[in-house]
Amino acid sequence: ASETYHHLISNRIKDSLGLSCYNFGIDGEKIVYQYTLFEQIVKRHKPKILILSFTTIEDQEGATTVTSLLPYCKDYSDVKETVIENVPSEKYKLLSKTYPYNSLLFKIIQGNIAEEPKTNGYLPLTGTNPYLKLVTNPDKIEKTSRSINYFIKLIELAKRSGCRVYIFQAPRYEINSNREDQQLYTSICNTHNVTPLNYLSD
Predict the structure, then answer these.
(1) Quick check: 164 and 17 in contact, CB under 8 A?
(2) Which one, out of 34, 37, 109, 127, has a CA that is 20 to 30 A from the CA of 67?
């Protein structure tokens, strides 16, 4: 989720723990992307720790984003299966060789021109937001049974791979947070024996 992308400073974690660290957050991507990505990572590497944002569980029925996974469908059959399982219409669109890159043209050009910053995936935000207002009654996170299932599958995959799992909640400009969300957060942490890192009110 974007809050992972812009909150977790990889190099500080690396310096504090003495472990290599990379931030795989990306704007606009949620649990299907994160699960599929991690599934590929553990085939090649055995991470010691996974820090997972709770808001990654967010999803809307019929609105799953798989755009960032499309370029990998050609070479990885299991990625393609996940994409089609979640968005069946992609099966026909993927017949086009250029389709997977249509919405990524700017990122591809940028990636070929700009040197990758030495932030290990973390992207700091700069400037100020004059329209920021304190939220006194926040909406609950939109989630589906599918997104909860993928979230739990990711935790279980990480633990089977030997990872210590932490589920974090980043600071938010809110007086309180939705009670239903916090009950689910606590329940998942307790049921799957993972460590909660709750910084919502910081």
Answers:
(1) no
(2) 127
Cα→Cα distances 70→31, 93, 115, 126, 130, Å: 15, 10, 24, 30, 36
4 class by beta-carbon count within 10 Å (0-12 exposed, 13-18 middle, 19+ buried): buried
List of E strands, the chain: 49-53, 164-169, 195-198
Q: Are the CB atoms for 48 and 21 separated by under 8 Å?
A: no
pLDDT, tens only, 103-131:
778 878 888 888 888 999 999 988 888 88
Q: Which of 162, 189, 197, 195 is nearest to 48 (CA)?
A: 162
Residue 186 near residue 180 (C-beta atoms within 8 A): no
Query: Averaged in consecutive runs of 10 residues, what is the pLDDT profile of the chain (202 residues)?
Result: 88 95 88 93 94 90 76 94 91 91 82 88 88 85 92 97 94 84 95 94 82
- Residue whose C-alpha is closest to residue 163's, from 52, 56, 76: 52
